[in-house]
Amino acid sequence: MSEFETVIGLEVHVELLTKTKLFCGCSAAFGAEQNTQICPVCLALPGGALPLLNKSAVEYTIKAALALNCKVAPQIAFDRKNYFYADLPKGFQISQFFYPMGTDGFVELHINGETKNIGIRQLHLEEDTGKLSHIGGIISSSHSRVDFNRAGVPLMEIVSAPDLRSAEEARLFLQKLRTILCYLGVSDCKMEEGSMRCDANISLRPAGRSELGNKTELKNMNSFRSVFRGIEYEVERQRAVLLSGGSVIPETRHWDEAKGLTRAMRSKFVSADYRCFPDPNVPPYPAAQKWIEEIKNTIPELPDARYRRFIEEYSLPAYDAEVLTASKELADFYDSVLSCYNEPKAVSNWIMSELLGLLNEAGVEIGESKIKPQPLGKLLQMVGEHKISGKMAKIVFAEMFATGADPALIIEKNGLCQISDEDTLSQIIGTVLANNPKSVEDYRSGKKKALSFLMGQIMQETKGQANPQMVNALLQNKLSS
Question: Which domains does the chain have, with CATH numbers?
Fold first, then answer.
């Protein structure tokens, strides 16, 4: 047994897919020229208009809270979180300190064939800060630049309980959380664009103990790979400190992706340092139960429900169901193909092996695929009806992926129709047997390898278009007569 137990909690910040910012009408779109999506409200200029709450942002946050099995707060209230940093124009952040939108939820993980619930301590809505660019690197920068386009964008913070026990569990939790939020349509969760950001609180304690050890907060992890590598490194660093008799210093550390290590940034704040108090410019609103129920009714079938349905309704293996429900687009694609060709396992095999293989090779998402569900269902129907062989279907599939053409047109253009007429096949088999008397004699004297040779000759004669199952049955029947 390991001498230490790893304890990890994640703080995940997710930008919401609203058209405008949380308290003003500035665009929240990503990628605009620096400092062009700003106004007196999000810059906190003197004499600016008072903040006006974005209703869509609140609805998205409530929807996420419900999907994550949280209790929704009876009122919507905002507080001022006071601290001073260059990316915070007001000198405070409008957040939800006292009444977070959701509390006491959980996310269900499937780990090594077992189910584990990871607690959600709270989920709250706040405004995002500006973005700093450190010239020369965050640790030794010569100067920094700030872009306030992001300041005021609706930001949802999701704080997990310290239930994660490894870097791999943290990665799986983050991926599952991203999947749920994408299913809901409340965020695009693009880590590379900063719309999903993750900080990790990491500590070690002697195995078997319940009290927590000193923790460090790890920042700058902008991919699932970074989350895994950063946490693994920090766990090993803390283990080495403890084994040498030292103490872990509570601090915020920076993950250096290029060098694969963490560096100290600053000592840890405690909540009292923020001097939070209710924001006088944003009055509290009651969260009417009828409104919450209306929001709840807009929640689509979520990944866990879909995962169970795919297993129960379609008799899919758990692995297939997990892969297919990893994104809403992929699960929708699968369901759509089944509406055209109702063979769940066959469709799953084609999507998981052929389609995902080509998508990964091309570096594109399912939504960008030129192959659409109905044409794929049509192709698989032809395979099921033995109009083309599986080998031919893969040729057709590759051209469909490249061009988006209809499978029937590809088959006709390339002369790929399978020969399944018994009289035609019987004539071809008779000709091949007549031309290969030695192989016929070998087979009848017990040399079964001769059958493969004869099959090959028949397939060559038909340019690979003969139905292999029919050929095998007819050939053996003729050889035994």
Answer: 4-294 (no CATH), 301-414 (no CATH), 422-479 (1.10.10.410)
